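Help wanted!
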Amino acid sequence: MLKTSPFHGRTAPLVRAQTWRRWSGYQMASAYDPHPDREYAAIRNSAALIDVSPLYKYRITGRDAARLLDRMITRDMTKLKPGQVYYTPWCDGVGKVIDDGTVTNLGNGAYRLTSADSSLRWLHMNAVGMEVTIEDISERVGALSLQGPLSREILSRAAAVDLSSLKYFRMIEGSIHGIPVAISRTGYTGDLGYEIWVDAKSAVPLWDALMEEGKPYGIVPTGVWGMDIARIEAGLIMLDVDYFSAHHALIEARKSTPYEINLGWAVSAGKGPFNGRRSLAAERKRGSAWGFVGLEVDWDSFERLFRAHGLPPQIPTIAWRASAPVYTPGGTQAGYATSGCWSPLLKKSLALAHLRKPHFAPGTEVHLEVTVEHRRELADAIVRKLPFYDPERKKA
Amino acid sequence: MSPPRYDAIIVGGGHNGLVAAAYLARADRKTLVLERRPMLGGAAVTEEVYPGFKFSVFSYVVSLLRPEIIRDLDLPRHGLQILPLESTVTPLDNGDYLASWSDPDETRRELCRHSPRDADAAVVFGRLMHHMAMAVKPIIGMVPPDPASLSPGDLAGLLKLGRHFRSLGPERFHALHKLMTMSSADYLDEWFEFDPLKATKSASGIIGTFLGPRSPGSAYVLLHHYMGEIDGAFRAWGFQKGGTGSISNAIASAARAHGAEIRTDAGVERVLTRDGRVTGVALSSGEEIAAGLVVSGLDPRLTFTRLVDTKELPGELLEGVRRYKFRGSSGKVNLALSGLPNLSCMPGEGPHLRGAISISPSIEYLERAYDDAKYGEFSRNPYMDIVIPSMIDPNMAPPGKHVMSIFVQYAPYALNGGWTDAKREAFGDAVVKTLARYAPNIESLILHRQVLTPDDIERITGLSEGNIFQGELALQQLFFLRPVPEWAKYRTPIHGYWQCGAGTHPGGGIMGASGRLAALEIMKSAA
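Answered by r_m:
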């Protein structure tokens, strides 16, 4: 039996075509409309309200809470100030990524970890001998993501907090229509946006409050399909889609280090001991065998493939999640793409890809395998640095 | 210090002029755009007419903006952001409605409610129109060859065109012939039985022309609508964030990024020539600016009879320009609203308010609207294409308030007795009164009303006779006949003087194709 989110009572009647999906064992909306066009557009134009409750959430307290997290993640916990949030990967002992998520310093020695996959066992394994309390609060805490250029205006009206000073990747506590919440300036869209954390018991009134305040600003309940396009534009990776967890991978070749999935920036070279440190230091020194980059499909070559059949180019309305081989112009395999989409905003066909050295340098010309009228064909593509889209308002 | 000399000056900062400027600047031509008004865009402008309420004053949706222009100029990086406009609802006189939604299955079920036969026919009709649009699409992207010329370039172009049409096969070739000659009502009669469906579809065949749905030739304009649909794959159809002025600004930003200079409040009075050759322009202020090329984005009448001395031009050309039909037939009413209209056929708020509302209950309704105009009056019960931009982009109006854009046809330029302030208000009243039949609360919501007649459109934008396409999209003035035979390749008889507005092939709509083709032709001629 799939679980339902604490917002289910409000979201379920809105899913017009019964387009549901599984997300961490929850039944969640792929889209509320039959097609995600308007929901995606809200992320880039007004504000999208996304139920992200299926994220795993842990509250970690006790004298050694920071120490535990510091041992686990690749970023330096000693620098995480109260009210600050890290986005970070964490690795196994040889530097292969297990998962990625956020760590929030809640103040008073309390921390919150969010992850895509269950992390309870790993937390406990790393906490041996430490004085910590690890609580799985996944089901006790509901989470809504409010993303888009008008999200700040809506939240400013709704919440009894001063949002003007809430910087990117910072967290603040307050209330919305009397409901206690934590608001972090985070999200999975690469746009201006916030995530709101609430006691699951107050989930429905919170939804109602945000929908009411958001109405004059064009708020749109948005499902995973809409968010998926935005996260590809923002170059944000997804566990089990773009990379395998070191804990899931059946073969060694499926594992990746942070450097190989474009998260090298989140590995702190100077911090104390942490899982995978030695291997990652060695990799930093010798350079990585793989890079994770963006691919921009050349439209003319794409159009030509379809024109040969008398067709206009066919563009998917939702993002694709499949492995597509990537070749050098000479025909040897350079790597593989793992997800992609048509960007309604950039008017480009985009993909995220793992490419072998030296093919991951921005500007490199490659060929991406596409299926055109039942045939495998090759479209020209250019390697781009991620993200594809990075509006100023995200951090402003 | 001698004044700067430009390779090219573009007269008029409408979207085609800006596109031409961007392409010329991209090819390293020192380019200057001169716009008479304080803002860029021509008929694609957004203005805050009433405090807090932004109107796409004239042109209001994007359908045909060429994908190659979006890519070549990287317009998304410069602010192009097209939002989905998802539905069309036609309120019917019996209190029911006809809707088309973004989901084809929903649309089919809805049509089934009115005519199961039409629901099936619509699928096959859609396929044929797809093929028709594919057939005509290459023409939109080519400089028209002159069929009367024997030059190798023209012959090659004609040959290519001939091969293209032969490749269509008989069924499609015949359909194309029908589209070129029939009225939209007759053409749609061959396919459908439900009158409001025919009326709503035929409406796209009359926009911007002085034709009724029963006038021969109106079927072709239908096809222009479907052209947007095939590029639907590219999803360049919808509502520009910030209104159509934001498209103009995006193109201007791309042009500037390539090095073009753009000046507003700089109306060109004359194009200067010496010995049959362009030397520059003179502004209304008296300032003179030298340039090797001058490209007019204005319509053919202004390009050939106002900007230059007619003595410089051959009589046949001037006669052709005189015959060229403008006959503005549409008006625009923009409303600032305190709340949302309540449609009797679909009460309350709903997804229908995020799409178009079409006042086209029957073919007869549209034809009678045309009859009024035929005899020199505005339609007492006009055809209206209504959108509420603030439902799509909340920034267009203060929170909770709305703007409504009403495209109205017919409002003849040559109104009996001429347009006066009283006539304008009477026209505005007719529009609001007609709408109130379908949305009874509309009058109580109006905070501000802007009424634009063809006379106003001409006065504000300069478009002759207020024709929104710089001249009718009628068959006798399309392709190698646009604007006049032998001068359809963006050239003029004056050396260095070019045309790039919608009055040239393929013209009309926020397409940009005229501007692009003109720039490419200019660069080819200089190469």
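OP: Thanks! One thing I noticed: The mean pLDDT of chain A is 97.
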